[in-house]
Structure formats: structure tokens, C-alpha cells
Design a protein that fits this description.
heterodimer; A: 516 residues; alpha+beta; D-Maltodextrin-Binding Protein, domain 2; Dipeptide-binding Protein, domain 1; Dipeptide-binding Protein, domain 3; 3 domains; eleven-stranded mixed sheet; four-stranded antiparallel sheet; 19 strands; B: 325 residues; mainly alpha; MetI-like fold; two-stranded antiparallel sheet; 12 helices; 2 strands; 2% strand; globular; ABC transporter permease (chain B)
Chain lengths: 516, 325
């Protein structure tokens, strides 16, 4: 029996060696793109997919600058308009030529997508100047126009026009049912979806007419397998069944770092993890001294070191370094003596009891972090009743504000500081939608004013100053409890040049991946 | 037999109704599927509109009656995540699970029968003692731990076997996606099936041993021996046949437990079967798929129990008439 197994295995190995030089990348991620329609959902998985199969007008570099893709260059004409000069000779997978018409069509579709329409709300009708020039116009002066252009992945307007076999329009954006765009694609990207079995595997083949011939990338096929279980994903890499995994679970970092069979790459991320202190539910949290005491009592360097195993960056504010609003002066504030002193000076020197909820499968080590926080609060006399639950149940509870302290992590879709404020800290307002996730009910008109003004400030230097000021105000107010930014991680076989293609948004540019 | 069949069908329908009710109560508790369908920054109104569109805002009874009405016409709903009819999704995942269960069952039968008999006949043999000790260890290690250990030893360290997935599959008869007909597929099924059988095998060894020992003490075995029948004939024909009855009963019950263990095994091995699908559906709050799956499993259980009852009758005609619950 043993001999048989060995023989069978040897045969398999020989076969595997035979196809190794075809530069196939076997990729394992924790999630699968939910659809082949890039507009059906705004999520990390879908954007990673879009960067493979489609191509944006411009994209972020590692240094958080913009680099040309389908737009060769761009210029600001006035407060409302940016003119994009498009690349000539670009072909869609269907063979159709890419022109300005496709950009206008895509922009129009983005405004119909449930997930993207909010982000593209500031945009007015674009003006097609000629086949390869388009003016993208906003209703008001809008500083984030270029940030948003990284989300414009032009789709093949001709391919997606008309009706499919069932009589449904081909451009329909359907979230829960079948649609043409959910199972067919025609983008300008380096890879074509060759076959796809949702949740099982997707095979991407290189597009022969791809425009970017200067890219050093040499992968001709990508086999994407979603592997949700952390241990299995790591085992698949270590056993050589896959070439590249993302993300790497923190508990396996040391193991991978020490292995010579794989290369590990990590980077500071931009998702902030915080606790919100509900001032509507608790009179105590209206006392700034109490809030400050809580922030001072929170040992976030300890959490990063012990619970996150160093795999996170301690935060004193929301904006990570590199964002406009990042304010160097705002450092983490752990100081237990100061916390005790503040607590004694507050109106509640004897402490009090509060309730708290946190998810247990949403953020890295979320449950452990929340438990650590409970014991930290005990040291300043605040007793916390913690309840944790899976994310499927968590968000409804979060929205209903069932507890006094609630955990939330946030990544800015716009890669911009103002986004943190708009969702997490502006005065909650049902009509405008601001403060949608502000379960702390922190409300400061001055902050609201600055953020609203920043939305139409196109002078970058002035805008940075405004956003940094806003960060300072909420820091001084101890409006919430900042913990850390989660780090990002990727690992692959040593012959993959991972470093040049990864970035803080976590969309690896697989088209540029070099396999030695 | 006819009356029995009719009673069974009625019983099955009742079970289905109850299961669908339970499924619906779980559905309401498990979370909001819309959360998983949209990005976080989507506004409350947009989410509400989508919920209306999916009929999730209707009261419990309205949703349930609608479900039963559609189910009566063979439509158990649409999976939110897969964007396809839920039944199609379940059926497309079934071959993976059934093949895994089949191979594990073969492993269990092939090993448990001879080992069990051996341990009963020669309880003091050193090999029997080793088997018994190992079986205690086997029963007490959770399946996912066994699975992870197997992966680390045979996939990561020795690199003999693949660590995840089903490998290459081929379409049989136009609907059965099989991994048992390709070499790659067979290599992929080795570790998961061992992991899955790791709980059942020791259990069956102990069960067969215990039953066999008991049977060997009975008068008719002594009588058969006294009559001078060959020991082999006594052992396999007379004794083992009577051992089988309780083993089959337990086997039928264990099949349900097997499904539970398949969920764990499939998750660890990224085995694309129904168990894995179920767990992911829970995580994504794909509630329509969940309810469809619960009803589907209910049907399977009813069928299995019926078949077990029938086999029972075949093995020992005495129980066919009476003693059925």
C-alpha cells in the first residue's frame, strides 16, 4: 500500500514539474469576488478582481500617488473639471476599441450601482471632447475627483448593451439573481476570466492584446482559489499547493518569517480599529474627563504587542500616515497614572458599570482585544459587561446601539481622512447620512463645519491643514478610543517578486507580478 | 408495506413543515443577509430598499407561507450569494460530500469489521490491546484537530498529499462532478476521508467488538459449536450476522452525526461540499440557502431512516411487524 502511494505520488510530482514553466500563479485568498460584474459590490475582493480583469483610469502607487493607466495624463481645467487624455489603441476582451464613450457609459453605470452611487454622487454628466479625451465634471468643487477616478474601471459599453437571452438588459446590476454582467465580462485588463465556479475556483488567462507591454509582469495564468480557513491557507502555501496567499493570519507570521520556503511581506494598513463611547446612552460619557481617562487607560501599545503580535500599528488618531489628515503631533496616549488621576477629578471618581459589544469574527483578534479592554477599564474603576457575537448578528445590534461601548473598524473607501469623520464622528443625521456609524453620538458642530468645508476645498495644502485640525479637535475631546491600524500581509514562494506589486489598499497588481 | 410507505410519506411531510418552521426562526435570528450583499458605506435607505425588494421586511408568517407555497412547486428559493436557485447550488455541491462520505464509509467498513471481530475473539492478544487503546484516542480527538494534524504531517512536512480542495474532477453522466475517477481527485480525497473516518472507525470497532463478545456468550453459539460446526462458520455466519443488527441501527443514527463531522472536515480541507457550503452560508447570512439546505437535509434524514428500517427488516424478519416506533 505504502509503495503504491509513493509511486502514485511520484507520478503526480513528475506531472507537476512538467507544467511548472508555464508561469501559472496559484493564488489563495480568504474571499472570492462575489460576481464578474465590477459594480455589483464595493468590497476588497471585488476591487482586487477589477484590477485583474478591468483597468482603472488611474491607480494608486505604493507611495499613495496616482499613476496613469487607461488615462495617459490628466489636467485640472477649473474648479469643477478634470480633463483625462485616454490611451489610444486599447482593446477590450471582446475586441472592441476603448474610447471616451466607454468612460462616460461606465460613470453613468456607477451612479446606478447601489454600492457606488454614494461615492459618485458629486459627479455631474461628463463631457466627451473627442474619442480619446473626456472631461469629468463634478457638481461642486471636489478635491477627491482623482481618488474616485481610481474606481472608474471602464467597461465595454458595446458588449454590455442590449438584452440577454432572458430579455433582461445586459447592463442590469443584479445583486441576488442571475444577470448577464454577473457571468460575462469584457474589460481592458491583463486577464480574461477563462472559467469560474463561484466560491470554488476562478481561472484567469492572459489577454493577448493587452495594451501594457512595458510591464515586467510575466504571469500567463492565475488560478484563484478562495481558502477561508486560516490554517488551511497557510498549509496550502507551505505544502506548495499554492504559490501566493493573502492575508497571512497573525498567529502564523513568525512561522512563515522563519521559513526559507516562503517569502513574507507585511505593510502598515489603513483600517483603524476603535471603540465608541455612547454619550446618548450614558451621562458619564458626556464628561470629557471620563472619556479622556478611558483613552489614557487603554493600553493600545500593549494590545499591538501582545494580542496582535506586533502585526498592527498603534494609533492615536484615525488617519494613517500618508493620509492628508495625518497629524504627526497626535501620538498614542497610554498612561495609567494619568488615567486614574483624571478619573478621580471627574464627576464619577468611584467608577460605574457599562455594557459593551464587539464582533468575534470581523477584525483580526477582535474578541481578544475587547476582552483586554475590559480588564484595562477595571483598573480605573469602570466595570464593563462585554458581549461578543459573529458579524452576521453584530451590525444590526451596532445600528440599534444596544450597548454603551461598541467596537468598529473603518477603512476609507476614498483613501481620504474626511471619510472617517463623515461616517464615524460627524453629528448623526438621518437625512444627510452623515454619522451613519457614529454610535458614540459624539457631535461637535465645529468638526462638522471643517469636514463639510474640506469636501469642496481643492487646494491640497489648505485641505490638509483643515483635516489635521479636525483630527486635533477630536483628539483633544477624546471623542472615541483609537486602538491601531491593522497591518496587511502577503506571502508567496521565494521566486515571486511580491514587494513591488502590493500596496496599502491591498489590491496587488498581479499584472505586474514577476515570477522568476 | 403499503400502509408503512404512506405513513412514512405523511411523516416526512410533517417533518418538512417542522424543519422549515425551525429554519425560518433561525433565519430571523442569524442576521441580515443584506449586510453581506452591500458595502459598509451604503446608506440605510438603500439597504432598506433592497430588503423590500427581497421580501425580507414581510412578517414571519407571510414569508413562511410564501416559502411553503413555492416549495410545493419545487422552488425552495434563490441563494443570495450564488445568485442561482438554492436547490441548484445544493445539488451541485452534493457529489463532493457524498463521495467523501462514501470513501469514509468504505474505510470504516473495511477496517472496523475485521478489527472488531478480531478484538472480540482474541481480547487478550497484544494487537487487540493496541487497537483498543488507539480507538479510545481516536474517539477523543476532535475531527478538526485530526484534520489539521494530517495536513501538517502529510501535506506540509512530507509533501506526499495535497492539502486542500478536490483536485481534478470529471463530469459523469452529465450531472455528477466526480473526483473519484481521476488520479488527482483520488489523491485529494485520501486525507479528508481519513479525517472523517477517524471518529467513526474507532466507534464501530468498539461497537462490533462489544456486540460480538455478547453474541459469542449466547446459548445458540455454544450450541452451534457443540454441534461441531466449523469455528469459521460459527463466527461469520451465526455470530456476526446477529452482531450486525445493532451495528446497522447505530450506523443509521451515526450517518446524521457524520453529516455534522463532514461540515468540520470540509471546512478544514476546503472541500467544496454541502457542509462547507452550509458553514459559509451561515457566515454570509445567506438565509434562503440555509433554509433550503435544512429542508434538503431533512428529506435525506427521512429517506435514510426509512432505508435503515427496511434493511433492519431484511436482516431480521422478526422485527418487521412489531417494535417499530
Amino acid at each position: 500500500m505504502k509503495r503504491l502511494i509513493v509511486a502514485v505520488l511520484a507520478a503526480a510530482l513528475v506531472m507537476a514539474a512538467g507544467i511548472a514553466h508555464a508561469k501559472t500563479l496559484k493564488l489563495a485568498m480568504d474571499a472570492d469576488p462575489v460576481s464578474m460584474d465590477p459594480h455589483v459590490q464595493l468590497s476588497g475582493g471585488m476591487l482586487q478582481y477589477s484590477h485583474m480583469v478591468f483597468d482603472p483610469l488611474i491607480r494608486w502607487t505604493k507611495e499613495m500617488d496616482f499613476e496613469p493607466r487607461l488615462a495617459e495624463k490628466w489636467e485640472r481645467l477649473d474648479d469643477l473639471t478634470v480633463r483625462f487624455h485616454l490611451r489610444k489603441g486599447v482593446k477590450f476582451h471582446s475586441g472592441n476599441e476603448f474610447t471616451a464613450k466607454d468612460v462616460a457609459w461606465t460613470l453613468d453605470r456607477l451612479k446606478k450601482s447601489q454600492d457606488f452611487k454614494g461615492l459618485f454622487e458629486p459627479f455631474a454628466e461628463p463631457k466627451i471632447v473627442d474619442e480619446y479625451t473626456i472631461d469629468i465634471v463634478t457638481k461642486e468643487p471636489y478635491p477627491l475627483l482623482l481618488n474616485m477616478a481610481t474606481y472608474i474601471f471602464p467597461m465595454d459599453s458595446e458588449f454590455y448593451t442590449g438584452t440577454d437571452d432572458s430579455g433582461q438588459p445586459k447592463d442590469a446590476i443584479v445583486k441576488t439573481g442571475p444577470s448577464f454582467a454577473n457571468v460575462n465580462e469584457s474589460g481592458t485588463g491583463k486577464f480574461i476570466v477563462a472559467s469560474r465556479e463561484q466560491g470554488v475556483r476562478t481561472v484567469f488567462k492572459v489577454f493577448a492584446d493587452y495594451w501594457d507591454t512595458e510591464s515586467p509582469g510575466n504571469v500567463s495564468e492565475i488560478v484563484l482559489t478562495p481558502i477561508k480557513e486560516n490554517a488551511t491557507r497557510v498549509a496550502a502555501l507551505l505544502s506548495g499547493d499554492v504559490d501566493f496567499i493573502m492575508p497571512v493570519p497573525p498567529q502564523d507570521l513568525d512561522r512563515l518569517r522563519g521559513s526559507d520556503k516562503v517569502k513574507l511581506v507585511t505593510m502598515t494598513g489603513s483600517r483603524i480599529i476603535t471603540f465608541q463611547l455612547n454619550q446618548n446612552r450614558r451621562e458619564e460619557f458626556k464628561d470629557p474627563k471620563v472619556r479622556e481617562a478611558i483613552v489614557y487607560a487603554t493600553n493600545n501599545p500593549g494590545i499591538v504587542e501582545k494580542i496582535m503580535k506586533g502585526f498592527a500599528t498603534v494609533a492615536g488618531q484615525q488617519s494613517p500616515e500618508g493620509y492628508l489628515g495625518y497629524n504627526e503631533a497626535l501620538t498614542p496616549r497610554f498612561d495609567l497614572d494619568k488615567a486614574k488621576q483624571l478619573m478621580a477629578e471627574s464627576n464619577y471618581p468611584d467608577g460605574f458599570t457599562v455594557s459593551m459589544i464587539a464582533p468575534n469574527n470581523r477584525y483580526v483578534n477582535d474578541e481578544k482585544i475587547a476582552e483586554a479592554f475590559v480588564s484595562m477599564m477595571a483598573k480605573i474603576g469602570i466595570k464593563v459587561d462585554l458581549k461578543t457575537m459573529p458579524k452576521a448578528q453584530y451590525w444590526d445590534q451596532f445600528d440599534d446601539q444596544v450597548a454603551d461601548i461598541q467596537m468598529i473598524g473603518w477603512h476609507a473607501d476614498t483613501e481620504d481622512t474626511a471619510n472617517f469623520f463623515e461616517f464615524l464622528l460627524m453629528c448623526p443625521n438621518k437625512e444627510t447620512g452623515y454619522g451613519q456609524y457614529n454610535s458614540g453620538n459624539y457631535c461637535n458642530p465645529e468638526v462638522d463645519e471643517i469636514i463639510l468645508a474640506s469636501q469642496s476645498e481643492t487646494d491640497t495644502a489648505k485641505r490638509a491643514e483643515m483635516l489635521q485640525k479636525a483630527e486635533k479637535i477630536v483628539y483633544d475631546d477624546a471623542a472615541y478610543v483609537p486602538l491601531h491600524w491593522q497591518d496587511l500581509s502577503w506571502a508567496g514562494k521565494p521566486n515571486l517578486q511580491i514587494e513591488p506589486i502590493v500596496n496599502v489598499m491591498d489590491f496587488p497588481y498581479f499584472g505586474d507580478l514577476v515570477v522568476e | 408495506m403499503f400502509a408503512f410507505a404512506v405513513r412514512r410519506i405523511l411523516q416526512a411531510l410533517m417533518v418538512m413543515v417542522v424543519i422549515s418552521l425551525i429554519g425560518f426562526s433561525i433565519k430571523f435570528a442569524i442576521g441580515d443577509p443584506v449586510r453581506d450583499l452591500v458595502g459598509v458605506s451604503v446608506s440605510v435607505e438603500e439597504r432598506e430598499a433592497l430588503r423590500d425588494e427581497l421580501g425580507l421586511n414581510d412578517p414571519f408568517l407571510v414569508q413562511w407561507v410564501r416559502f411553503i407555497g413555492n416549495a410545493a412547486q419545487g422552488d425552495v428559493g434563490q441563494s443570495f450569494f450564488f445568485k442561482r436557485p438554492a436547490m441548484d447550488v445544493i445539488i451541485s455541491k452534493a457529489p463532493a460530500t457524498l463521495e467523501l462520505v462514501l470513501v469514509s464509509s468504505i474505510i470504516v467498513v473495511v477496517f472496523s469489521v475485521p478489527i472488531g471481530i478480531f478484538c472480540a475473539v482474541r481480547p487478550n492478544h497484544w494487537l487487540a490491546r493496541i487497537f483498543m487503546t488507539l480507538s479510545i484516542v481516536g474517539v477523543s480527538i476532535p475531527v478538526f484537530l485530526t484534520a489539521i494534524l494530517l495536513i501538517y504531517v502529510f501535506a506540509v512536512e512530507l509533501q506526499w498529499l495535497p492539502s486542500y480542495g478536490r483536485g481534478e474532477t470529471r463530469l459523469l453522466f452529465g450531472f455528477w462532478e466526480s473526483g473519484l475517477v481521476t488520479k488527482d481527485g483520488l489523491l485529494h480525497i485520501i486525507l479528508p476521508s481519513i479525517a472523517l473516518s477517524s471518529i467513526m472507525l474507532p466507534l464501530f470497532i468498539r461497537l462490533i467488538r462489544a456486540e460480538m463478545k455478547e453474541v459469542l456468550e449466547t446459548e445458540y453459539i455454544k450450541f452451534a459449536r457443540a454441534k461441531g460446526l466449523s469455528p469459521r462458520r460459527v463466527l461469520y455466519l451465526h455470530a456476526f450476522k446477529n452482531t450486525l443488527l445493532p451495528v446497522i441501527t447505530v450506523g443509521g443514527v451515526q450517518l446524521g452525526i457524520m453529516i455534522a463531522f463532514t461540515i468540520l472536515t470540509e471546512t478544514v480541507f476546503q472541500w467544496q461540499g454541502m457542509g462547507f457550503m452550509f458553514l459559509e452560508a451561515v457566515e454570509r447570512s445567506d438565509t434562503s440557502l440555509l433554509v433550503a439546505y435544512l429542508v434538503f437535509v431533512g428529506v435525506i434524514f427521512v429517506i435514510v431512516n426509512t432505508v435503515v428500517d427496511l434493511i433492519y427488516g431484511l436482516v431480521n424478519p422478526m422485527v418487521r411487524i412489531s417494535g417499530r416506533k
